[in-house]
Write a structure and sequence with these properties.
The chain is of the alpha/beta class. The protein is about 45% helix and about 15% strand. The longest helix has 23 residues. The structure holds a DNA duplex.
Length: about 800
DNA sequence: TTTCTCCACTTTTTT
DNA sequence: AGTGGAGAAA
């Protein structure tokens, strides 16, 4: 929420210079007066951006400059002006942003009218349109949408078919190459023509086969949702014209993160009426890696020479301190549109630097700080570079009983059992979908192994029928064993019975009965393990989610539900007003703001994330990401880094992020870390900070020359290349102080006899990992072999 | 043919 | 550290 407040309406008559002087009560005058009232709360520049609703407009909106506010007021203003809501198209970056915008507009005009505006992401909106126009493209309306995982498994299958080794060419790399080609609107033919290296040649072949596969499955991947729109508009001018008429006013948020294909569609749609308004900030472009083309925003003025350009440079969100830090960071980037972002807000508190011994302490410190905070829980957000970092934070929050919400991350929809349920439903909706059919054949196991499936696939290929059809005719496939024939046919008739109910049953009823008849629920029931229980629960969650959906949308079809779930990233979308801390990646934080923000893991290699070599461009993108993170904060910003961190299950000793040195030392002070309290000398925090931020390559064994060196040195852990297993067990964390000395001192190795509190005596069979995550496998006579985390197991060496 | 075990890969970020 | 795939054993 912007902190900008609306002035009271009553003041409108004497303060607004644009107020109509007429006393007439004609419709026009009334509506004009209401408009000025509507736009009253905007500053002159914002107002300009909102008022110019005809012709091309480029809004360069700095972070926190009230961009969303301008957009919502602009649309509300349009509606007040008499523009039909259904002629307005507003494309946002996430579904959530779209929903919020619609809600806010609803409060300004009426909910009823706001609902008629076309809002959504490029992908969700285009999926809707393509569903309607599928025929024209040779798809059926029930086409499936494949996510990145689905794509990957097809690519694997295709590579197997072509005999391309997955060792030499990583499927994920191929997928990225294909996706990037699609984002540049290169067909497989064009790609093959341009292919130079062996990798590109192979990718070209896979691309071709991949496309064939999707077509055959009546499926589109995420990129196709854009590409097929372009194809549709290019081949059917009448369809294009229909949508040009439909979307006479187009607005695009986060324009800096659009790619070439999106740019193309937008230009096609806007060509006729030219009422195109794009909003963006080149400094916040953080999706170049997935094809976003910064040129789209840089070239807008060239493409639309008559474009009105508005710069929003006043920041209403953050304190002077935070904004200054953000500016000093982003100014290190060479490639950017120079902007002068300023704020009238107070200086505010200094930025706190939290220096921690390890990731666990980092998490604890953050949680403690949140608990001490006078602000409500929901005022806090913790941001990090990689999803993996949420684990430690989550643990700490749970230990301290602090409610939290993780945005994104390991999405509910990515869970195996959830994907299985959706796969069943997709096959019912789209029987051509071989991919999803194969996914569910042996879930639960139906005695149809690799060989049987190969026979069926061959049969389908020879007769040029779908795999689904091959299952139906399984009895006539002589190469199949009798048992496999029956099994395959039974499987088919089970699915077909469900399919027959598609038009009579409500989608949720259909799903429920299908889950019973397919045996998936029973499989997890019979298993009885805790994990199976979880999975069973998750299936129930999907079913009740679907039931809820049907309640809300009584006329919705199964296809509609599947389409929406394919494009939603998380079932537990951020619910506004929840009483919880929010955790998310820096990428998902884009567009959000919080009074208190933590950015965790400011370490070289993690943030900025670096692979072997990093180009200037990549570095600048990381820096923009840091800029985005800083500017999420309204009042207080905490930056933290740890000196030990587990990555890939291994202990690493990272140095502080070079980004820290890019913030003026006078803006920062040390938060109370355990390190500081232990070594609190009279040292100046600022010099400590600047020393630290030089990410000194100083060796640990360098001679201490002064107090400062002492300070830095004693806080550092020795950084052996390969920490000996279990070696630092005794000093890894204060928690060990709870364990009596005699219990942890003894050296555990393979073959050791150990005593466990519950399991009794046993023999160590195997050991793995180091430090806190060290594990032992112990053979107990009573309960058999157990894998234990050494840290928790409280083993006594005998 | 299935199931188990081990191995390799993953983690950058997302519609 | 966890997951998914490939290969070997039952």
């Amino acid at each position: 929420m912007s902190k900008l407040t609306l002035k009271p309406l009553s003041s409108s008559s004497n303060t607004s210079t644009d107020a109509p002087s007429s006393d007439s009560f004609s419709n026009e005058a009334i509506s004009q007066r209401r408009q000025s009232a509507l736009l009253e709360g905007l500053n002159p520049t914002q107002r300009e951006a909102a008022e110019v609703i005809h012709g091309p407009v480029l809004i360069l909106a700095g972070a926190g400059s009230g961009k969303t506010r301008v957009l919502t007021f602009r649309i509300a203003y349009m509606i007040e002006e008499g523009i039909a809501p259904w002629n307005i198209l507003a494309l946002t970056f996430t579904n959530k942003a779209a929903g919020e915008m619609q809600e806010r507009i609803g409060k300004l005009v009426s909910e009823e009218r706001a609902r008629k505006i076309w809002t959504g992401t490029f992908h969700s909106l285009f999926a809707r349109i393509l569903r309607r126009e599928a025929d024209a493209l040779g798809f059926s309306t029930s086409f499936s949408i494949y996510d990145a995982d689905d794509s990957l498994s097809i690519i694997r299958a295709v590579m197997n078919g072509l005999g391309i080794s997955q060792q030499n060419f990583q499927p994920t790399g191929i997928r990225a190459a294909i996706s990037s080609a699609k984002n540049k609107m290169l067909s497989w033919q064009e790609y093959q023509r341009n292919a130079g290296s062996l990798f590109e040649k192979q990718t070209g072949l896979i691309y071709q086969e991949y496309e064939k596969r999707l077509q055959k499955n009546n499926a589109m991947d995420f990129d196709d949702l854009l590409l097929n729109m372009i194809r549709l508009f290019r081949t059917k001018p009448d369809v294009l014209e229909r949508y040009q008429e439909q979307f006479r006013y187009i607005m695009i948020d986060e324009y800096q993160d659009t790619n070439k294909a999106q740019y193309e569609v937008v230009n096609m749609l806007a060509r006729k009426y030219r009422n195109l308004c794009v909003v963006g900030d080149d400094a916040q472009s953080i999706y170049r890696w997935r094809g976003a083309d910064i040129r789209n925003i840089l070239d807008f003025e060239r493409d639309y020479t008559d474009a009105k350009v508005v710069r929003l440079e006043q920041n209403y969100r953050s304190t002077k301190t935070i904004l200054e830090a953000a500016n000093s960071v982003i100014n290190r980037n060479e490639r950017q549109i120079k902007k002068a972002l300023w704020t009238g807000n107070d200086d505010g508190a200094k930025i706190q630097l939290l220096r921690c011994r390890d990731d666990r302490e980092e998490a604890e410190l953050i949680v403690k700080t949140i608990k001490r905070s006078t602000k409500p829980l929901e005022a806090h957000a913790v941001l990090y570079r990689t999803n993996a970092q949420s684990q430690a934070l989550e643990d700490a929050l749970r230990r301290e009983n602090v409610p939290y919400l993780i945005v994104g991350g390991v999405s509910f929809y990515k869970r195996k059992e959830v994907k299985d349920v959706l796969a069943y439903l997709r096959v019912i909706a789209n029987p051509q979908d071989d991919e999803n059919l194969l996914r569910i054949v042996n879930e639960p196991p139906r005695g149809l192994g690799k060989t049987s499936l190969e026979h069926l696939q061959n049969y389908a290929a020879q007769r040029n029928v779908t795999l689904y059809e091959a299952f139906r005719l399984a009895d006539t496939v002589d190469v199949l064993q009798k048992r496999a024939q029956t099994s395959a046919h039974d499987f088919w008739s089970m699915l077909d019975r469900a399919k027959a109910g598609k038009d009579t049953l409500r989608p949720d009823e259909l799903a429920k009965s299908l889950m019973v008849s397919c045996g998936l629920l029973k499989m997890y029931e019979d298993d009885g393990s805790e994990e199976a229980q979880d999975r069973w629960n998750n299936i129930q969650r999907v079913l009740s989610h679907l039931a809820e959906y049907c309640e809300r949308n009584p006329d919705a079809s199964l296809e509609q539900y599947l389409q929406e779930t394919a494009l939603i990233s998380d079932l537990d979308e951020v619910k506004a007003g929840g009483k919880h801390v929010t955790l998310m990646t820096l990428h998902s934080a884009k567009g959000l703001e919080y009074p208190v923000v933590f950015i965790a893991g400011l370490e070289r290699g993690l943030f900025p994330m670096s692979k072997s070599e990093m180009s200037q461009d990549e570095m600048e993108e990381e820096r923009r990401l840091f800029y985005v993170g800083i500017t999420r904060a309204e009042e207080q910003l905490y930056l933290s880094h740890a000196e030990k961190r587990y990555r890939f299950g291994e202990l690493t000793y990272p140095t502080p992020s070079p980004f820290l040195a890019e913030i003026g030392a006078e803006l920062v002070e040390h938060g109370s870390t355990s390190i500081q309290s232990r070594f609190s000398s009279g040292s100046s925090v600022n010099s400590a900070f600047s020393q630290l931020s030089q990410q000194s390559s100083r060796r640990v064994n360098a001679p201490a020359t002064n107090n400062m060196d002492n300070f830095l040195r004693s806080a550092k852990q020795p950084a052996p290349k390969e920490p000996a297993p279990f070696e630092d067990l005794s000093n890894a964390s204060d928690d060990y102080s709870q364990i009596p000395d005699d219990e942890r001192k003894g050296t555990i190795k393979e073959g050791s006899r150990v005593q466990h509190e519950i399991f009794g005596e046993g023999t160590v069979v195997r050991m793995a990992g180091a430090g806190e995550s060290a594990q032992v496998e112990v053979q107990f006579p009573s309960v058999g072999r157990k894998k234990l985390v050494l840290r928790f197991a409280k083993l006594r060496v005998l």
